[in-house]
Design a protein that fits this description.
The chain has two domains: about 140 residues, Rossmann fold; about 220 residues, Glycerate kinase, domain 2. The protein has 14 helices and 13 strands. The chain is elongated, with a radius of gyration of 22 Å.
Length: about 375
């Protein structure tokens, strides 16, 4: 029996890699001869590097860079082959790098992500995939561009400071050094949202509050992004503000498009292609996926739903494990999922379930496979 195990992470508990390993352990405890293909998934956000490095048998590289407040840190990115690198924005510029009291999109910057990209270029990358998600920033990738050599100046000819608020002062742009560094390199950005850069559904008003912005800060940040778009579109003679997904990660997608000519692709689509998910599913007898919570929202672009749809396309049975099954999960059962299983064995606190998620997943997979073995002897 060939089984594809392709879960997302259990947020704030287990990475997708660890989820896949825990499920595989449970399967093998009951069916030691099972052939398991572990394909931990992601949608471009946190866990993207680990998922792709695992699936492609690539390598991770750890380097010195900067956090969202320009403090020295170490962060990692990956090489999938000799010339394809993947950079996860959250690694350097993510919200998890800051305490709650430090959240401040007026000042946070993507400069550290730019340093990761720069290191990948120096190590020979010709294609760079930038995964977006979990960002602490609202600077439209300006910090990233400065790290790559862009000069962004105010009306007095002075380089603008880091942070989203400083974009209000942007008056002139010189991209010659950045373009020299990045010439001949293909950039692809993986996003899982459709927000434009500006407006009620744009980067600032949709995601700014979770990054620490109050109502006054939101207004200032929106005006700053408006000025950024005006200056950059005038300089480049292209329009990017209304491209679907341009508002992802505090406008980082817009910056990747504007500064680096990046191609925008859906995170799940891109990562499933790189992992050859469909090929593996086509050859599978069973597909297993999952994430921390599965409910009615799972159908709106979540990774497990994409995995299940692909399995259904090839008429393969697919089941999902979840830390919890919440309102509306029943709508997923029957199609595209054959069934969904909560991993808890008894009523427990959320804290306990998250702490013990690996063991609970393994035990849940054991229960499933005992049931499958029982079912093979029954005619129902």
């Amino acid at each position: 029996m060939k089984i594809v195990v392709a879960p997302d992470s259990f947020k704030n508990s287990l990475s997708a890699v660890k989820v896949a390993d825990a499920i595989a352990d449970g399967v093998l405890n009951v069916s030691p001869n099972a052939q398991i293909v572990r394909l931990p998934m992601a949608d471009g956000g946190e866990g993207t590097v680990d998922a792709l490095v695992k699936a492609t048998e690539g390598r991770k590289i750890t380097v010195n860079t900067k956090d969202p407040l320009m403090r020295d840190i170490e962060a990692s990115y990956g090489f999938l082959d000799a010339h394809t690198a993947v950079v996860e924005m959250a690694a350097a510029s993510g919200i998890e790098r800051l305490t709650k009291d430090e959240l401040n999109p007026l000042e946070t910057t993507t400069y550290g992500t730019g340093l990761l990209i720069k290191n990948a270029i120096r190590k020979g990358a010709k294609k760079i995939i930038v995964g977006l998600g979990g960002s602490a920033t609202n600077d439209a990738g300006a910090g990233m561009a400065q790290a790559l050599g862009a000069s962004l100046k105010d009306a007095y000819g002075k380089e603008i400071n880091p942070g989203g608020l400083s974009l209000r002062n942007l008056k002139s742009v010189d991209l010659s050094s950045l373009q020299e560094l990045t010439q001949g390199i293909q950039f692809i950005t993986a996003v899982d949202v459709n927000n434009p850069l500006l407006g009620e559904k744009g980067a600032t008003y949709t995601y700014g509050p979770q990054k620490g912005a109050g109502s006054r800060e939101l207004e200032s940040l929106e005006k700053s992004l408006q000025n950024f778009a005006d200056v950059m579109e005038d300089h480049l003679k292209i329009s990017f503000r209304d491209i679907k997904g341009a508002g992802a990660a505090g406008g980082m997608a817009a910056g990747l498009i504007a500064f680096l000519g990046a191609e925008v692709r859906g995170g799940f689509e891109l990562i499933s292609d790189l992992c050859r998910l469909e090929q593996h599913i086509r050859e599978a007898d069973l597909v297993i996926t999952g994430e921390g919570k599965m409910d009615a929202q799972t159908a709106y672009g979540k990774t497990p739903f994409g995995v299940a749809q692909m399995a259904a396309k090839h008429k393969k049975p697919v089941v999902g494990f979840a830390g919890t099954l919440d309102d509306g999960y029943e709508k997923l059962v029957g199609h595209p999922f054959n069934n969904l299983y909560p991993i808890t064995e008894k009523p427990v606190s959320l804290e306990y379930a998250m702490k013990d998620a690996s063991r609970l997943l393994t035990k849940a997979a054991e229960r499933l496979f005992r049931s499958l073995k029982l079912g093979s002897h029954l005619k129902i």
